[in-house]
Specification:
By secondary structure, this protein is an alpha/beta fold. It contains 13 helices and 23 strands. It binds shikimate-3-phosphate.
């Protein structure tokens, strides 16, 4: 699907509720499936990725009822059944990496598959620690399909070379069913900790001590949760309000877990006009409303421990940086090359087409601002939802119209993106 973007409105005004957090939605389904009894999940994400997770647990025999308003009722016997076919993770790395940690310790065999993009993404990072725990996983060149022979697993102590919540969660989920002691995982920097928070809330024996997580074999209690809005989806609206003169918007009920709010910290350094209103805590997760106004921004350096706290937002931060005075340097973000697309190359190539002054580095990007974006061209999404949405926002600040090819990839995380955007136009 081609999408033509031109700015046909003056400014953005109003208040919106952003759809549910994708990371928390995956975890709510996965952990409910492991907890004996009835769990209720309100405001489940309508994105394609969490649906892939949901369909996999249906295929593993879990009773999941989808009612109105994206509410799920999960009745689990805390026992998965052998699937009759291959389990399809679609585009979702979170589904594949987290679910592998559970399937590796079942009494049956299973095969996890993914789409073209997911089948190219690195799985060695989970296969290595799982194998150390006793798992049997067969692959070609450490990529999907993953053929998993269920085994009894034993605990390990493991240092992850990169900060990755998917890898950490995979090992935690394997450790949750491993006999004979504590599994310990240490990361170089703190990655998102939704797994730790939700498992603790559900009664797991899990502890965090600095950068080390310890987990023991545990039985989980069911959960009753209303999922907050996704800060990674909110990021596109925050960007639009900052860049379009006279805008003022409020984004309601957004997840503000500090392991996810790197974008807010960076934008404050860039002198953005952003305030948090009405902060509360729901099932261990910080939640609040975010108010954003048009701002004159300054460039800055983004590197080190903050990178995992804003990893998914870097393409839209690059768009914002084109409109900030001075240079913005993004370093230590090599991991961006192993996402749904090579997000360093894709962001640099496409923003250059629009007229941005942006350079590619091995581990990031250098953006010189402030530059007038011209547009008058077509751009590619590389089958990557975050590229699709970042380019949409870039299109709004171009002087001439742009056409985004294959915009439909937006549905991976945010099917209502455009509809919500329309509601803010003034
Ligand atoms: C996610 C973790 C991050 C992030 C992804 C979702 C999760 O990936 O990029 O979109 O839900 O755990 P990594 O753990 O590979 O950094």
């Amino acid at each position: 699907m081609q999408k033509t973007i031109s700015k046909n409105f003056k400014t953005l005004q109003g208040s919106i509720t952003i759809p549910a957090d994708k990371s928390i939605s995956h975890r709510a389904v996965i952990f409910s499936a492991l907890a004996k009894g009835k769990s209720t999940i309100k405001n489940f994400s309508d994105g394609q990725d969490p649906k892939s997770t949901l369909n996999i647990f249906k295929a593993l025999g879990v009773d999941i009822e989808i009612t109105t308003n994206n509410k799920l009722i999960i009745n689990s016997k805390a026992k998965l059944l052998p699937p009759t076919g291959r389990l399809d993770c679609g585009n979702s790395g979170t589904s594949m990496r987290l679910i592998a940690g559970i399937l590796a310790r079942q009494k049956f065999n299973s095969i996890l598959i993914g789409d073209q993009s997911l089948s190219k993404r690195p799985m060695k990072r989970i296969i290595e620690p799982l194998t150390l725990m006793g798992a049997h996983i067969e692959t070609k060149k450490y990529t999907a399909p993953l053929k998993i022979q269920g085994q009894k697993l034993h605990p390990i102590e493991y240092k992850t070379p990169k900060a990755s919540a998917q890898v950490k969660s995979c090992i935690i989920l394997a450790g949750l069913g491993a006999d004979g002691g504590k599994t310990k995982i240490t990361e170089p920097y703190l990655s998102r900790n939704h797994t730790e928070i939700m498992l603790k809330h559900m009664g797991a024996n899990i502890e965090q001590n600095g950068l080390t997580i310890s987990v023991e074999k545990s039985e989980l209690s069911p959960i009753d949760i209303e999922i907050c809005g996704d800060i990674s989806s909110a990021a596109y609206f925050i960007a639009a309000a900052l860049l379009i003169p006279d805008s003022k918007i409020i984004l309601k009920n957004i997840g503000l877990n500090p392991t996810r709010t790197g974008i807010l910290d960076i934008l404050k350094t860039m002198e953005a006009n952003i305030t948090i209103i009405d902060k509360k805590n729901i099932c261990g997760e910080d939640v609040g409303d975010i108010s954003v106004e048009y701002s004159e921004l300054k460039g800055c350096e983004i590197s080190g421990e903050i990178i995992p706290r804003l990893i998914d937002e870097l393409p839209i931060i690059a768009v914002i940086a084109t409109q900030a005075e001075g240079t913005t340097t993004i370093k230590d973000a090599q991991e961006l090359r192993a996402k749904e697309s090579d997000r360093i190359k894709a962001t640099v190539d496409e923003l250059k087409k629009l007229g941005a002054d942006i350079e590619e580095a091995e581990d990031g990007m250098i953006i010189h601002g402030k530059t007038k974006l011209i547009g008058n061209c077509s751009v590619e999404t590389y089958r990557d939802h975050r590229l699709a949405m970042s380019l949409y926002i870039a299109g709004l600040i171009c002087e001439k119209e742009i056409t985004i090819n294959n915009f439909q990839w937006v549905n991976i995380s945010f099917p209502k993106f455009e509809e919500l955007f329309e509601s803010l136009k003034a």
